[in-house]
Write a sequence for this structure.
C-alpha cells in the first residue's frame, strides 16, 4: 500500500501528503475504495479526527469522493479539476504576475490562430458581442475589463480543445482579479485597437493575421510592464 506511520511534526500534512502520493502514483486506482477510517488510523498511528480532516481536504480538492454509508473512493482523473487545483488564491506577487504575462505571450497567439481556424458563425457573433461591450464601456473600467476577459475566454472556447480551454480557465481566474487594474494603468485605447484587429482578422477568416495581432498585443503589454518599476496589481477587494 505504500503507507507508513507519521511523526508528530505536521501530522495532518503528512497524512494528506502520503495519501496524495498514493493517488498520484496510481497505487490507489480511480474508483478504488480507500481503507476505512479505523484502518487508516492504525496505518498512520494517528487519531480519527486527523484522518477525517485529511479525507475532507482530499475531497475538497477533488481527489476523492465520499459515498454515504459506503466509504471514500478515488475520483477518476479530470483535467478541469487538476487545473482548478493549480489556481493561486489571493493577490499575485510581482513574479507571479510577470509569469502570467509570459504564459500569455507563449499561449495566446497560437490559441488565437486555432480559434479563428475553427470558429463558427455563432462563435464569431459571441466574439463581436464581447468587443461591442468593450467599445461601449469607455466610462466603465470594470465592465471594460470583464468584457476584455470574456473576449479571450470566447477565443479559447472556439478551439474545440478541452485541454486548452481548461488551461485558459486557469489563467483567467487570476487574470480577472487584476484586469481592471491593468485597464486603469494602460487605458482602453490599446486594448480596443488590438481586439479590433483580431476581430477584423476573424471576420476575414485570417487566422495568421489574428495570431500576429494577438502576439503583438501581448508583446507590447509585457514590454510595457517590464520596462517600468513594476509592482504587481493588487487583487480588487472582495464584494
Amino acid at each position: 500500500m505504500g503507507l507508513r506511520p507519521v511523526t508528530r511534526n505536521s501530522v495532518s500534512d503528512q497524512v494528506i501528503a502520503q495519501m496524495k502520493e498514493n493517488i498520484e502514483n496510481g497505487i490507489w486506482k480511480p474508483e478504488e475504495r480507500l481503507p476505512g477510517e479505523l484502518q487508516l488510523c492504525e496505518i498512520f498511528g494517528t487519531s480519527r479526527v486527523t484522518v477525517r480532516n485529511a479525507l475532507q481536504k482530499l475531497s475538497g480538492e477533488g481527489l476523492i469522493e465520499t459515498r454515504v454509508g459506503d466509504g471514500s473512493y478515488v475520483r477518476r482523473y479530470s483535467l478541469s479539476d487538476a487545473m482548478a487545483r493549480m489556481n493561486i488564491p489571493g493577490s499575485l506577487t510581482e513574479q507571479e504576475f510577470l509569469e502570467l504575462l509570459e504564459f500569455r505571450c507563449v499561449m495566446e497567439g497560437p490559441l488565437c490562430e486555432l480559434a479563428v481556424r475553427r470558429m463558427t458563425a455563432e462563435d464569431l457573433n459571441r466574439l463581436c458581442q464581447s468587443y461591442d461591450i468593450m467599445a461601449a464601456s469607455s466610462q466603465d473600467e470594470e465592465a471594460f475589463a470583464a468584457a476584455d476577459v470574456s473576449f479571450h475566454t470566447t477565443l479559447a472556447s472556439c478551439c474545440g480543445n478541452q485541454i486548452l480551454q481548461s488551461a485558459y480557465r486557469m489563467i483567467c481566474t487570476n487574470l480577472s482579479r487584476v484586469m481592471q487594474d491593468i485597464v486603469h494603468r494602460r487605458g482602453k485605447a490599446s486594448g480596443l485597437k488590438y481586439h479590433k484587429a483580431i476581430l477584423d482578422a476573424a471576420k476575414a477568416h485570417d487566422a495568421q493575421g489574428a495570431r500576429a495581432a494577438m502576439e503583438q498585443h501581448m508583446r507590447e503589454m509585457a514590454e510595457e510592464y517590464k520596462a517600468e518599476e513594476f509592482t504587481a496589481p493588487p487583487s480588487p477587494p472582495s464584494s
About this structure: The first strand starts at residue 64 and ends at 67. The first helix runs from residue 11 to 24. Residues 80 and 162 are 8 Å apart (CA to CA). The two ends are 46 Å apart (CA to CA).
